[in-house]
Amino acid sequence: MSKADDSARSSGFSRRAFLRGSGAAAAASALASAPSALVAKDESPSLVAGSTTIVLKVNGQPQKVTVEPRTKLLEALRYGLNLTGAKPISVDGSSGGSTVLVDGKPVAANSMLALQCVGKSIQTVEGLAPDGLPAAFAHHDASQCGFCTPGFVVAAKAFLDKHPNATEDDIRKNLNGNLCRCGTYANIIPAVLDVVKGARNG
Amino acid sequence: MVEYVWPDREHTALLGKSHDKIDALAKCTGAAKYSYDIAPERLLLARALGCPLAHCKVKSIDTSAAENVKGVVAVRAMKKEGDEIFWEGDLIAVVAGESEGAVAEGLAAIKADYEPLDVFVNEADLSAAESAKRTAKSGGKVQLKKEPDDDDKDFEEKELARLFKEAAAVVEGHYGIQAITHMCLEPHGSTCDWNDGKLTAHLSTQNVSGTAGQFATPLKLTANDVTVHCDYIGGGFGSKFAADRWDVVAAQLSKDLGRPVKLMLDRDLELKNAGCRPSGFADVKIGADKDGLVTVWDSHHWSTGGWGGAPLPQDQVPYVLVPANFRRRVTNVKTNASPQRAWRAPNHPQACALSQTAVDDIAAKLGLDSYDVFMRNLANAPEARAATYAEEMKIAAKLMDWKSKWHPHGKGGKQGSVVSGLGMALHTWAGGGHGSSCLVKIHPDGGVEAFLGSQDLGTGTRTVIALVLAETFGLPLEAVKVNVGSSKFPASGPSGGSTTVGGVSESSRHAALDALDKLNKLVADKLQVPAENLVARDRRIFDKDHPDKGLSWKEACSLVGMNALEVTARGAPGPKSKLSSSGVGGVQMAEVAVDRETGIVRMKKFVTVQDMGMVINRKTAESQIFGAMIMGIAYALFEERILDPKTGKFVNAEVADYKLPRLGDIGELVVEIYEPDSERARGVIGLGEPPVIGPGAAISNAVCNALGVRVPVLPLTPKRVLDTLKARNA
Amino acid sequence: MKPFEYASPETEREALEFLSPEPGKTAVLAGGTDLIGLMSRLIVQPERVVSLAGIPSLRAIEVDARGLSIGSMMSLEDVAEHPATAAYPALRQAIGEISSQQLQSQGTLGGELCQRPRCWYFRSGEGLLAREGRSVVEGDNRYHAIFGNSGPAKFVCPSRLAPALIALGAAVRVIGPDVDNETIMPLEAFFRTPEDEHDREHALRGDQIVSHVLLPVARYKSASYEVRQGSGPDYPLAAAAAALAFHGGVVSEARIVLGQVAPTPWISREAIQAIVGCAVNEETAEAAGRAAASVATPLSHNEYKVQLAKVAVKRAILLAAGFESGGF
After folding, report:
1. For residue C234, which residues of chain B lie inside 8 Å, CB to CB?
2. Which of residues 214-273 of C touch A (CB under 8 A)?
3. A177/chain B closest Cα distance in angstroms
4. Taking 60 as the threshold, does the pLDDT of residue A40 lie above it?
């Protein structure tokens, strides 16, 4: 069986066929008229191409943002919504600098597509209570240049949500998804412990 | 006559205590805006394309397809036909467009053709470098106590031979330290906004006051039409002093397109272009007396600063402990790597790692305690510093519990396959203040602010300035507003070489004292008291002999009239200053555990005792030391630039591949600031650099003490540790 | 990234309909921790990306008399925390070693198995085999393969769960091109050593997905051991998993699998042969490690990995048998 046959054999040939030209434009314009929906309910209910407007729920607020499939969540937050706390540091999320919470879980916003986050609840550092971890980090001087700090604060938030009674040893073992170049690790440990001990709200 | 001094310890309200950084919360909530975060309306994003070859000639660059990519607005070639390229990743072209995706596509559509040329990158192998004709003699020095006879041509060799023959112990060793990069988490770059013939450049820079002119000349402007802004910078470490060639391209694009343009280097191009620290390798032969005092030193060191970059200079080896008789020779190796840039304490970490390891090997050879040998070798330290080092060593040893933990090299107990060891090193740095001017405004309503064309690298510069003003005016810290980060403010020097705290504390203390002097004259007139009797304390200005005679700060400020009282003053660092001086040092002791089966080294405990003259903000001073220790752990155990030996390609130029320590890798860190009255009396001295110097040698010495064998080249990766153990057993 | 279409199917059937058999034309998006970075660097350039996140059947663990069926889209963290995985310590330990909350919550079981090699020549655009392996042989190969590297493939399989899963006897359920085309294959058969640039490092066709990982009822004592330089999410230098069955105090059956040492997870028949029939102790575990290492063929810069492979095997065996590893 040739490849073409193989493809045609499927009942969903039109879905398998790649949207091209007018197809992409049609998908985009359909979306423009229904911005709150992820996709128009047409023949390809779950296929998006080209530029489209989606709604992301960020820090409790639904917000419209125009994206392409290739738009990363980080790019949408920074350039679409002016939330620049999450930082671009690595190409793949390995620095943890772009950490945000999606449905409460810590993820790297620069290794996720914005479209993956439709219908989910996104929390960025800007949405955290400043008197909790941010204040603890500030008091313990757990930032120097500060470029990694928002990602670290969000990662610490995720960690404490899950391990509210974490020990120093737990912190040393688990807060390793984030990279700091200035060397603030020594001050991050007591900052996070402060919140564990109830000195500040998490 | 205003006397420019600091208040003494007991009359100090704020200085020397621990204070939160005034901008810390903005960083921890994401509110702080970095150059990367600035996004004016109609912003275009730009990225650069790097050359895939490490040495080649450009045959052609075709940007036409890139220009036709949807969403691409402009493409600029940065090289032309015939240009020679000397390292992989050098910038070929820049694409500006409407989205990250469009720009990426544009970059991929650029067609460039190159003629490959010979590549050499392995400077560790000196004979290979010689065969490749990439070496050049680079100075050196001979210092021998004995005078030669007039006709003795071979005196140098004969005298060295004699000294080695007389030595109780002689050690010959090879030592090395690989090149590393700065890896600023915010890459180099800028957001440039051209408007009405003027340029605003949000530049990620350590040099706010010095970079406007670097944009102006290529854009055919004068510097008055350029404003450089940098409120927050995501790491510099010595690599961000200039408006770089890619920044100028961004500014030119903004001018040509009439839209703001952001060009931040991609991570890989950042590592390939925007700074690295020279490597260092040395063959060292030293002789010592029976107590371990080094009497003669003979070394040859070589390194690369990349293509056209300065290598490790000749003057820092041997480091701190300089015996009476020594000879050093230096070779520069030219490699196909990007030119080096200043890296925190330029050249000192390498010099320390090449020198104080050799001193420790004398201790190993004689079976002596390294502490005793270093103490004995303080006889070779600069006389002015030796006593301070000795005090600091005693404190550090106590904090480390050195004496009870010590075992001779390689003779410690084993737990499973794990052995432990101790090592130490000494360091020094100048740290005198740079030139700085400060404008202080005292508003009629009592508001106080300062303006300096300085920058806060995260070290707490804003807070230092605020503390100096608040202390001077008798105000709480939060009553003072500090404005830095604009080239339109009175000029300050670049933040490098630990010069900032000395510089800005000088200028802000001068300006604040001058302003207070003027204010005091107004208060004296009003209250009919002698101005010289007035003191500013606890939000009041009052007669020190009649404390009830006084005005609240607000009342006093209302005397300045309709407009703010403004004073601009320049600091006067130098030998005559009572506010600042230079020359600091410290002692570092490391305790490590090494798994002999896997070669993995773990930090157990790491102690730094550091002098720094007078402390302004204890909290941020300690943070600087912690940070330096962690950066030291990084280059001692983890990080190195890895260039493909054949192609010169920088293979680990991504965060995922460039190994750095994480929070779990630092062990227990202990910091002690050595600040007796004698130190405090010296005034303010910078400390950003010094504690990053010793970790390489201290940790290498600790590993050597644990294993009983020197792992010669840093970083001490499992590969290097295992290869060393295998070679010894073979 | 190049432009692409984004598909978010809600059923396995729908997902397969979106996929193309043509290699590289479509890409399956699981957690994204690897794929998005590869797309950003233009190392892979699919025309369509099919996200599996909206398919409920891929996100559940089912337990029955045959063992576990774990949906490929379960996050690593959810797998490690599910009570049903308690009987498989090697698996839980392997997940625990991935020392990043972000990777554990964003990364998925299927994505972990299908992630692309970390080889820096591959990741800088020289192709999966890096110029038929020449770049690796002539270049810096300190992290490359020491076993199974006689062909052009010199990279190491990056999966950190595969050694544990193979040791535990796992299989994968692969579906496609149609939903009723189901293949269940032992996980060791899933990984392949590519012979040319058109091959992939696993058995999946472009129009197939891994839907589930199947684990037989636990009957081994098991452990994973990674030689990791630091605490971060760095990949280990070498790793091993051991699953041991005992009879009368001696090992009656063993499955010993190394990771990060060969283009596929490396089942060490030599180590298995050495340890079966022995009581586990420092000496026998060491002998098994030595046996594993005896067939290594290191490259110019990675001989140290032979020692690490030996130690990883020894320590995995000791840990599986309930002893201390003896090192870090």
Report:
1. 656, 659
2. 231-233
3. 8
4. no
User: A82 at the B interface (CB within 8 A)?
Assistant: yes
Q: How confident is the model at residue A11 (pLDDT cuts 50, 70, 90)?
A: very low
Q: How confident is the model at residue A202 (pLDDT cuts 50, 70, 90)?
A: low
Query: In chain B, whose CA is at the least distance from the CA of C136?
Result: B644
As to burial, measured by CB atoms within 10 angstroms (0-12 exposed, 13-18 middle, 19+ buried), residue C64 is exposed
Distance CA C168, CA C189 (A): 14
* Interface residue of C47, C116, C119, C140 to substitute, partner B, most B CBs within 10 Å: C140
Residue C231 has its nearest CB partner, among B595, B644, B662, at B662
Distance CA(B325)–CA(B584), nearest Å, equals: 25
CB contact under 8 A, A139 and B655: no
Residues 6+ apart with CB under 8 A from B225: B197, B198, B199, B216
* Mean pLDDT score, B436-440: 98
User: Chain A residues with CB inside 8 Å of B24's CB?
Assistant: 137-139, 141, 143
User: Does the pLDDT value for residue C187 go beyond 70?
Assistant: yes
Query: In this structure, are residues B333 and B304 in contact, taking their beta carbons and an 8 Å threshold?
Result: yes
How does pLDDT run across B123-135, given as a tens digit for each residue?
999 999 999 999 9
Residue in C205, B64, B582 with CA at minimum distance from that of residue A7:
C205
CA distance C221 to C244: 5
- Three-state DSSP state, A81: coil
Region at B238 (left for phi over 0; alpha for psi -120 to 50; beta for the rest)? left
The reply to whether residue C99 touches residue A115, judged by beta carbons under 8 angstroms, is: no
| Number of CB pairs, chain B paired with chain C, less than 8 A apart | 113
State the DSSP code for C84: G
Q: Which of the pair, A11 or B636, is modelled with greater confidence? A: B636
The Cβ of residue B598 has, within 10 Å, a number of other Cβ atoms equal to: 25
Q: What angle do CA B308, B309, B310 make, to 5 degrees?
A: 125
Name the residue facing A92 among B264, B459, B656 (closest C-beta): B656
Closest chain A residue to the Cα of B32, Cα to Cα: A85
Q: What span, in angstroms and rounded, lies between the C-alpha atoms of A197 and A140?
A: 14
Nearest CA in chain A to B101: A70
pTM of the full structure:
0.96
The ipTM, to two decimals, is 0.97
Hey, which residues 15-44 in chain A have their CB within 8 Å of chain B?
Answer: none
| CB-count exposure of residue A197 (10 Å: 0-12, 13-18, 19+) | exposed
Mean pLDDT for chain B overall: 97
State the smallest CA–CA distance between residue B584 and chain A in angstroms.
21
Contacts of B113 (CB under 8 A, 6+ apart): B58, B59, B60, B61
Q: Which residue of B has its CA nearest to A80?
A: B39
Q: Give me the sheet containing B546-552, strands edge to edge.
A: B534-537, B540-543, B546-552
Measured between beta carbons, which residues in chain C are less than 8 angstroms from residue A18? 5, 47-48
The angle at the Cα of A8, spanning A6 to A13, to the nearest 5 degrees, equals 125
In this predicted model, what pLDDT tens digit does every residue of C21-65 receive, in sequence order?
Answer: 998 999 999 999 999 999 999 999 999 999 999 999 999 999 999
- CA C215, C216, C218, C222: dihedral to nearest 10 degrees? -60
The encoded tokens of residue C45 equal: 């350039």
Residues in A touching C2 (Cβ below 8 Å) = 70
Checking if the pLDDT of A39 tops 50, the result is no
Listed residue (B135, B131, B72) closest to B98, CA to CA: B72
**E-assigned strand segments in chain C:** 5-7, 26-29, 48-51, 61-64, 67-71, 171-175, 182-186, 209-216, 221-227, 238-247, 250-259, 266-267
Closest approach of B644 to chain C, Cα-based (Å):
5
Q: Tell me, yes or no, if C227 comes closer than 8 A to chain B by beta carbon.
A: yes
Q: Which two tokens stand for residue C316?
A: 């995995």
